[in-house]
Design goal:
Number of strands: 18
Strand content: 15-25%
Number of helices: 13
Largest sheet: 6 strands, mixed
Distance between the termini: 56 Å
Shape: globular
Helix content: 25-40%
Strand order of the largest sheet: 10-5-1-2-3-11
Length: 372
């Protein structure tokens, strides 16, 4: 009975004709789970505001309810080792961060993920430099490229080469690649509408997932992903060095994660998402001297904060906008300012002091930019 009620509620809230009258948020766990790999996202949908909050945390981190205990130099790492492969326990960390249980779930394994990505004709990723991963002969080339199933799966599941003692950095880089994949996938679904809207093809997409969503709910879920704006919450981590372990281990800081989630929750409910300044850097990949500084002067006059200008590491034929912070509402504002086509917009999660990176290519025309 519980599932029937929630299914009806989901259709009411997530259907194409959303009433915008409900304050009920819907929590969905999206889980990629295979024998040697797992990662997950809590998707929180706010129908009234038409915003999705994407909650992430590094799945290779551990849980300690009381972070103060981690300051004890005599603490034994063995007490946490049982968490390593306990996927169900790790997924429940989202319940602690959001203070709510999941309403629905979508699970997909490696083979079906590869089929899913191939079925939607791949997704595009932008890399600022070449990426070499362990246990593969494939080099991920810098620039923008379409990734299909197997190469995309390798992109966010394999480690870079590393030296002893630095695995926690490698682990976080790998998790950022997972976030990069998820954000580009969600953003690019709008370009896949023909696939998503055809019933026979939707049936195939639905078959790739293990889910408690009905087929109609699944379609509404996809349509909402396309329609809603999105933001991300990245759970803060605590690095801990145990005497018995050569590597630094990561723990989810639950109190700070709750605080950060509630901060964004309040911003969404009070329609206060865009009150903070939008920050960006401008990089010159055009071959024209001082172009980035000239564009900075123009953008600064529009009340945006350009915090840095520099040359990009290689020349590009086209101009690109890279979203580092995962905020599609801010992205919309920048699209209006920069008049950049959506096909040249990418998400790239990494540790950055700026929300966006604007890379000027050979196609950039200052005169046209000024006219706009």
């Amino acid at each position: 009975m519980y599932k029937i009620i929630f299914s009806l509620l989901f259709v009411f809230l997530f259907g194409c004709n959303i009433t915008n009258k409900s304050d009920i948020d819907i929590h969905i766990n999206f889980i990629i789970n295979d024998l040697n790999y797992y990662n997950f996202t809590r998707m929180v949908f706010f129908p009234k505001e038409k915003i999705t909050l994407l909650v992430f945390y590094n799945p290779e981190s551990y849980l300690e309810e009381n972070p103060e205990k981690l300051n004890n130099t005599n603490i034994d790492f063995k007490k946490y080792q049982d968490q390593k492969n306990d996927v169900e326990k790790k997924v429940k960390i989202f319940n602690k961060i959001t203070q709510k249980n999941e309403n629905f779930y979508l699970r997909i394994d490696r083979d079906n993920f590869i089929r899913f990505i191939n079925f939607i004709n791949g997704i595009k990723i932008f890399l600022p430099s070449n990426l070499e991963l362990e246990n593969t002969d494939y080099l991920h080339i810098k620039g923008d490229h379409t990734y299909f199933g197997e190469n995309l799966y390798e992109f966010f599941t394999l480690n870079e080469r590393y030296e002893s003692g630095s695995y926690h950095i490698i682990s976080q880089n790998k998790h950022f690649r997972f976030e990069t994949m998820m954000l580009n996938l969600i953003f690019q679904l709008k370009f896949k509408k023909e696939i998503l809207q055809k019933q026979n093809q939707l049936d195939i997409l639905y078959s790739f997932f293990n889910t408690n969503l009905s087929k109609n709910d699944f379609q509404n879920f996809l349509e909402s992903l396309v329609e809603y704006d999105f933001l991300i919450v990245e759970a803060p981590l605590i690095p801990v060095k145990f005497p018995t372990n050569s590597e630094t281990d990561l723990f989810v800081h639950i109190p700070k994660s709750k605080e950060l989630y509630n901060h964004y929750l309040n911003k969404i409910k009070s329609n206060n998402i865009l009150k903070d300044p939008i920050t960006l850097e401008i990089l010159n990949a055009s071959g024209i001297n001082r172009l980035a500084n000239r564009v900075k002067a123009i953008i600064d006059s529009q009340n945006y904060k350009v915090l840095a200008t520099d040359n990009f590491s290689f020349d590009l034929d086209e101009t690109f906008l890279i979203c580092n912070n995962g905020n599609s509402l801010e992205l919309k504002q920048l699209i209006g300012l920069l008049y950049i086509p959506e096909k040249n917009i990418y998400f790239l999660r990494r540790i950055k002091d700026v929300g966006f990176t604007y890379i000027l290519g050979h196609d950039f025309n200052v005169k046209k930019f000024l006219k706009r």
